[in-house]
Amino acid sequence: MTTPDVQRSRSAGSDILRTAIRRNTGAMVWGTVLMGLYQAGETAFPIALGLIVDHTMRERSPAALALSIAALAVIITTVSLSWRFGMRILQKANTTEAHHWRVRVAACGLQPVARDVDLKSGEVLTIATEDADQTSDIVEVVPMLISSSVAVLVAAVALSLADLRLGLLVMVGSALILSTLGVMSKRIGSSTQEQQARVARAGAKVADLITGLRPLHGFGGNHAAFRSYRKVSTEAKQQAITVARVNGVYTGTALALNASLAASVTLTAGWLAFDGQISIGELVMAVGLAQFIMEPLRLFSDMPKYVMMARASAERMALVLSAPPVAAPGTARPAPGGNLEIDCVRYESLQGLKFQVPAGEFTAIAVYQPRAAAELASILAVNVPPAAYGGVVRLDGQDLADLSVEAVRELMLVNPYDGEIFAGTLRTNIDPSGTSRTVAEAVEASMLTDVVALHREGLDYEVRDRGSNLSGGQRQRLSLARALAADSDVLVLRDPTTAVDAVTEQLVARRIAELRRGRTTVVITSSPALLDAADRVLVLDEGVVTAEGTHRQLLADDPAYCLAVTR
Which one is predicted more confidently, 250 or 376? Predict the structure, then answer.
């Protein structure tokens, strides 16, 4: 039974294919014309040979022979040039269309608003590459299908002029071949879709394992993780073998049917010539067409398979492109200032959380339960849609739900606990856009200076994927430097110094306070150094603020706080 989600995916997949065709109509028309000329020229060659044989046998004139050779030269030139320029137009359109869909899928995968799609990042990567390419193949497939049809039609008409039975044989045979292969192509489409899904799941699994490789080694879980990946990869391999088997059967059947049709045309033409019903020239034409028609018939019979593969890939892209957003963000833009207000927010472990951070203040939040820290950071990062929690978050007096996500993130930066490090250099990791004017100050404040000084290249030192050539503390300080270099009006940091030593932590805390003076800064932390550097400390326990004051006041007056943060 087809579920509504599957039906929606198929409908959206068809819309994607129609969009691709509509956007490339001009290129496809010119490509079809040129490829039609190519196929017509290919088919005209044996027709010309047959006419030359008949004419030469009747006339026996050198001038007629020279004219015939010139005609063949024109046909060969037409075939060569039409193929060259036709394929150039189609492949350029195909490549451009694939680029368009890759960008679209990548943009949706990076969309700040969460989307209701049950796909992991590895699967989105496969959709943005392989599926985008296969979907765009429709730009080439349709013109090739039409041009192959032209070749078959020209051959059928030419053979019909020689003898109606030959023309009918080609037309009926081609229809039977296409019908048979059309049924078989549906199996290829469903098998390919399943294979793509399993390969994507295997890719997502290995990406997750590489991300967590160090912790896995730490508790000896790498062997179990490898067995888990091997199981997923084996399933993908088995499905790939199934697809290869189906493709093999399809290709073998197509070749057998095409060869049977060509043989039937040849044998029928031979019998007609032997019986005197067609001339020797027409026999040459028929035998030549039976050979030349193999290529357009092969293309003609391959097209249903590629159409089904393009459709399967389009339906997978539709999972990302057509999925409804969890929440519709607002369109307003907040006024610059930096005032942050949390008003009676209820979400998971947060139970009516309420506090305010005035513009320009450095506030630290000591959270006793790590889960509450993660939930507060997710809400401020707009990873949780406003409709999913109770209460209101206001930025400079405006409800977060009324603001566009892009505008919120321009004004307020929430640096994640496990900030990603990218392959590149220290500089490109700190300042990805290349527009920051505070890179040097951010490096100094995050105490990344020792990493820069350690390498001759300085900030141009090459960083490997996920920062694998950096220590845990260096990666954390690099992530902190990136957050500070953004120089946003409101900066929210979550546990930015958990992987550094106590001495470095003291220096980082003091320098963050100096660099961010006059800018709103919120640090969710249990670090005594950061708590002491803050203008004010809020204590978050059991989902609500239970105390506030300076770090030293709370140490003196609150035994629970003293016990929680003293190391």
Answer: 376
